[in-house]
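Technical note accompanying the year-one report. For the benefit of new consortium partners, we illustrate the data format agreed upon in the data management plan: each record pairs a sequence with a structure-token string. No post-processing was applied to the example shown here.
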Amino acid sequence: SKLGPLFHAIVRRFIISDFLDSICGFKGFKANVAKTICKEQTLYGYCFDVEILLIAQKNGYSIKELPVVWNDKKGSKLSILDSPAILLEIVKLKINQIKGRYNKDNAR
């Protein structure tokens, strides 16, 4: 599917460009950081990982990208049928950004 790279390009262009791969879904946190981030999280679908990076940045947490060995699982690809839901979540993220939800000064 070509949706993965397209999704990644849209996210990098319109939402967050600070990371090489913000949408891989593989994230690790210290327990206290995860609790803080999850309290502020509003998305639980396709863009959950992008939102948690935005929340982590807002809270001033140190974020590092580390290489991982990734083995694709058959059937875990995005489908063209996922496009409307993905775009809706991207729009929600953008609206949240415009409203300042992920700004450091806008703590919950």
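Partners are asked to follow this layout when depositing records. The first helix runs from residue 3 to 14.
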